[in-house]
Amino acid sequence: xxxxxxxxxxxxxxxxxxxxxxxxxxxxxxxxxxxxxxxxxxxxxxxxxxxxxxxxxxxxxxxxxxxxxxxxxxxxxxxxxxxxxxxxxxxxxxxxxxxxxxxxxxxxxxxxxxxxxxxxxxxxxxxxxxxxxxxxxxxxxxxxxxxxxxxxxxxxxxxxxxxxxxxxxxxxxxxxxxxxxxxxxxxxxxxxxxxxxxxxxxxxxxxxxxxxxxxxxxxxxxxxxxxxxxxxxxxxxxxxxxxxxxxxxxxxxxxxxxxxxxxxxxxxxxxxxxxxxxxxxxxxxxxxxxxxxxxx
Length: 296
Ligand code: PRP
Ligand code: ZN
What we know:
Largest sheet: 6 strands, mixed
Distance between the termini: 36 Å
Bound molecules: 1-O-pyrophosphono-5-O-phosphono-alpha-D-ribofuranose, zinc ion
């Protein structure tokens, strides 16, 4: 194995809600690696980069301690590591737009809940004791926290606790366990983090290139390319309708004086309503196409 400092290391979740989307994002930056199902380390074929698949809870720590240089982690896990492991949390350098969920307090459906004061003196089971403790302190609620690393949702049924504080995404787990969410403690999504440890020039360049490509992938995700024909006189109105577009490209149409083709990148969603408004403004042959890659 090559010495550690010769390859950049990216930590991702080995299993769980972020695992698949994290690997997909890395692949979309053009990096190729073979995926063995249980491989701990995925070696990128044509760049000095390794992808390390680790436990969710370890990612923030690994990046903070320089074991890995970058990490993809839920904001919840990052914040929890900062509070309970007392690490200098690595910097968040991008919000990745997937793995959205929230840390919520939930109580059994048949229990009345009139607000936070009802949690005074209660016992709350949680996978995120650090974040929950801070939240309760901020709200001035004294409650006991029972730390659980999994299956938090069964705690009320087993009389381990009267309430829980756990991640909720679709809400199916709460429903299945007869619980209802009553407070939102933290909104979370996947974020890209970077450690502050020194890298040699070559790896600095490798990292910069990877990060530029991540930016490109994120930008192209929400963006569409729009094309249409229009009378030149309608250009101002069309420019106003296009959502999140910079200066459009305008080219004359051969053999049709006064008519132009308009091309633009739209950085926001383009709805049917937008296309209808463009048509009313005089546009025709409107095409909306996805963007595969983008470099800004
Ligand atoms: C989380 C959380 C809930 C579930 C919520 O667990 O602890 O169990 O997801 O998702 P839902 O609202 O879509 O049902 P996760 O699957 O991450 O695994 P773990 O609890 O075993 O760590
Ligand atoms: Zn769970």
